[in-house]
Amino acid sequence: MNSFLSPALRRFGVAAWCDIRLQWRNGFYAATAVMLAVMVGLVLQLPVSLPIVLLPVLVAGNLLITTFYFIAGLVLLERSDGSDAALQVSPLRTTEYLAAKVATLGILALAENLLLVRAAFVGEINPGLLIGGILVAAVLYTMVGAVAVARYQSLNEYLLPSMVIVSLLTLPLLPAALGWQHPLLLLHPLQPAMSLLRASIEPVAAWEIGYAVVAGIGWAALAAWGAVRSIRRG
Description:
Elements: H1 2-25, H2 28-44, H3 55-81, H4 83-88, H5 94-120, H6 127-149, H7 155-169, H8 173-178, H9 191-199, H10 206-233
Helix pairs in contact: 1-5, 2-5, 3-5, 3-6, 3-9, 5-6, 6-7, 6-9, 6-10, 9-10
């Protein structure tokens, strides 16, 4: 088992370190800090405190940049400098390549949004469910972003189609902002993350948390399968 895992973990570690360096060199962390400062500044300028019921909407919306769009930026940067061609002949597997991106972007998104929640909301929050909701959404967004960008070669040609995908991917945000719930929303891929985020601020039925965990893993696995296929073809 160790002889099998050790090379895979080494390849994953190298890929993750390369991603961190690429993100740092291209200003991803600086952009995240600026976006966080802007969001916190906007919230603090509101005449009253942001209602805590809007936490799922704010977090799920804010996650898009550091996951969905950042993985697109990474993939397109690698294509522009030709490193994607080198990856095709390297021992790094597609699953390890994507796992490194999910890990590095997921940690970045988690840190940003925990700071945002701390600054924007006052009230009792379950940190475990909050972190779970953030990570479920981050994995989903990152994998769908990988699928979406796989066929494009430049950011300019990707931006317009990406807006259509984002509008479909974030459909549950408007009902959540209005406090409207419907059983059909449970079929949407983002709803498990929204359920966990909502459970972090108010009591929910045990079945809803169970649904969020099972459905969240299922949608993430399906998105990951699509991302692996798309990156291999791309």
